[in-house]
Amino acid sequence: MKAVLKALILAGTIGICCTTAFAVGDPSGVGPYAVSSEVIKIASVTIPHVAYPVDIWSEVWYPTDLSKGPFPLVLVLHGNHGVCRLPGTTDDFCPADPPNCPAGYLQTPNHLGYGYFTHNLASWGYIVSSINANAINCRFYAIDDRGRLIQEHLRRWVAWNSAGGGPPIGTQFSEKVNLSKIALIGHSRGGEGVRAGYDYWRAEGDPPGIDIPAIFEIAPTDFQVPIQFNDTDADFSVALPGCDGDVSDNEGMRAYDRAQATREKIFPSSKAQQFVWGASHNFFNSEWSFDDANCYGADQTPITRPTQQKLGSVYFMGFIRTFIGGEDFEALFTKDQPPPPSVKTFVDDSYAESRGNVLLVDDFTTPKAPNVNNLGGANMATNLNVSACFGSACSNPPNLWLHDPVQHAAEMSWPKGGTGVPTWTEALSPGRTPISISGYKFLSFRVAEQNSSLNPPNPALLDFSVSLKDSKGRVTTVKLSTYKEIKFPVGSGDRKSILATARIPLAAFVPVDLTHIVEVSYVFNRRPRGAIYLSDFRFTP
Amino acid sequence: MGRTKLIFVIALLVLGTVAFALAGFRGANYTVRQVLASDPASGPSAPRVPALEFVVTSQDVFPARALDPILYVGKVELRQYRYADISNRTLVFTLFDWRKLEDDVPVYLQYGNDKRTRTDLPNFHIGMIKSH
User: Fold this and answer.
1) How many whole angstroms separate alpha carbon A358 and alpha carbon A234?
2) Rounded distance, CA A323 to CA A456, Å?
3) What is the 3-class SS of A279-309, one letter each residue?
4) Do B11 and A84 make contact, defined as CB atoms within 8 angstroms?
5) CATH architecture of B20-130
6) Which residue from A255, A441, A449, B130 has the least number of CB within 10 angstroms?
7) Number of folded domains in chain A?
8) Within a 13 Å sphere around the CA of A147, how many CA atoms are in the beta-carbon half?
């Protein structure tokens, strides 16, 4: 009775929070600090492990009154793009010897393309340095070189923050930088590049005396050749443009898959992913003029550059202000509340708390998957086809599965041809011994539709029921669609099935006794037939 | 013609061809030559060794984008490339392990896994190699 009462109180609390339509506040506005900016440039520097000279060059936005510091540091890194343009034009080209442009051409200010959020971010008390990586552009691969450039900028900031400062800016930033709160933001190859820089810093401890607790990647590459870079021990978010005409396989999702599947060694951290409908690759950089939007079909409507940059400002600034600044915009990433009205397109989210803070029920990686889950409980299918898969085994053209091989899932379709309501049930322990999940707040799982004729096409949304059963046989069932909008895979012909996270407040399952739960069931009773992927069942804080 | 006008004309010419070639690169072709080159994978002071350069030209610009262009010559993938000049209509792919090449094999260029950019080129024949 006590447990039921407790659950009712929790239900009431969460009900107030989540069923009302209060949107998350908009973090992208101008903050209290006046902002100055400055160019820092040292030409042709030799950087360890890089075979050619690179400029140490950045535009830095910072609170004009640095006496209020020290302030967190945010490094921003652009991606691969032409580095030379004719005066008065915005079409960019590659010289034979980057970044040296022939006579008559100017260097493209690729690093200035993020001013739409760097200025406002600085006004909230951040030193934001957008790095010019033109010397690394127009070359094959060069992800490692980008990582080394990040590492060199970190070394320079350690020097600039020291009492004695360092050239070329002297003591301007001496003791004004909070080196334990550094964030990295990278776009395109710059996304994988900041990940590389983070990994080099972690592995080599160079430079010492700093910490990098947060990384945001925008439409990143994930070449993984010859090295796989990961974001394990940082709060991490990745934005995937739905109409990315360049990194068209949205391979940044693989960085998320690996991050959320790995238990951190040092720093418990959250992982997030936003698949942004209608967004292009290039519009996140205002200097990249060519509209590369390719939505691969008519499902999505391309969004304008101002709309996309506003959305970018919301998510990039919201991430930094939450995970570096300690403010509360986390619901932008959990989607426990709707995004602010300035986000004018559909954003499909994945979110995972630190692997160490959740109770993992099933990610279909056990040797006996899909029959036995991570808790050792038995799984049972009724009138349902189920198989566990990962990597290319999950992909059945025209259904594309582009996730990292570390991401396992259950392929499910119904009906199997038998009788009974198609249902997938997971016992939460061997022998169905009841367990308590009262210390958690959400049931979380990842789900995607398959590009299958078993599913109705857009705009129909996926729906099914989820239930919890306690040791006294009480069952509470809720509808997925109350908490998550799952759309048909995007594309044309071949379509991409991208897992998104559904989070259902456990309070919604009252009156089941959350201290004595025996099983969770997914009941496919809202469509006569269907085909989906499911994975990553977790109880989360 | 004034300088501004000249720049405007050049810009117009450039604009016509700078966009991604989404259905392949128009008029693409290539030549093959023997050279002596240093393999960057062997370090900054690597000695110059015999190599082959596949010089791929097109009427369209080869854009710098997140994905790299890759030249497929039969079973051999050429990933190491450079831009020949600012026109960006010539890419030079260098192959150090050229003994793996086979005669009379299909050749195509593609950016990463973006199949929209696949551009089929004439088959490669050993006899196409020009000595320096």
Assistant:
1) 17
2) 39
3) CCCHHHCCCCCCCCCCCCCCCCCCCCHHHHH
4) no
5) Sandwich (2.60)
6) B130
7) 2
8) 22
- Among A295, A398, A397, residue whose Cα is nearest residue A346: A295
Q: Is B113 on the interface with A (CB under 8 A)?
A: yes
**Which pLDDT value is given to residue B13?**
38
Q: In this structure, are strands A54-63 and A127-131 parallel, antiparallel, or unpaired?
A: antiparallel
Structure tokens at A37: 């900016």
Q: Which two tokens stand for residue B123?
A: 């088959």
What is the arithmetic mean of pLDDT over A482-511? 94
* Residue of chain B minimizing CA distance to A190: B66
Domain parsing of chain B, residue ranges: 20-130
Q: Is the same domain home to A461 and A446?
A: yes
Q: Are residues A322 and A399 in the same domain?
A: no
CB contact under 8 A, B113 and A249: yes
Helix axis angle, A305-323 to A115-122, nearest 10°: 30
CATH number of domain containing A220? 3.40.50.1820
A285 touches chain B (CB under 8 A): no
Q: Torsions phi, psi of A347, nearest 5?
A: -120, 120
> Using a CB-CB distance cutoff of 8 angstroms, which residues of chain B are in contact with residue A281?
66
Q: CA A49, A54, A56: angle at the middle one, nearest 5?
A: 110
Please check whether residues A344 and A468 belong to one and the same domain: no
The span from the CA of A291 to the CA of B46, in Å, is 41
pLDDT at A19 over 90: no
Work out how many CB contacts closer than 8 A connect A with B. Answer: 87
Whether A494 contacts chain B with CB within 8 A: no
Domain that residue A493 falls in:
358-540
Chain B within 8 Å of A221 (Cβ-Cβ)? yes
Contact with chain B for residue A139, Cβ under 8 A: yes
Confidence of residue A459 (pLDDT cuts 50, 70, 90): confident
**Which value does ipTM take for this structure?**
0.87
Neighbour count for residue A303 (Cβ, 10 Å): 23
Identify the CA nearest to A338 among candidates A481, A445, A483: A483
Q: Are residues A67 and A91 in the same domain?
A: yes
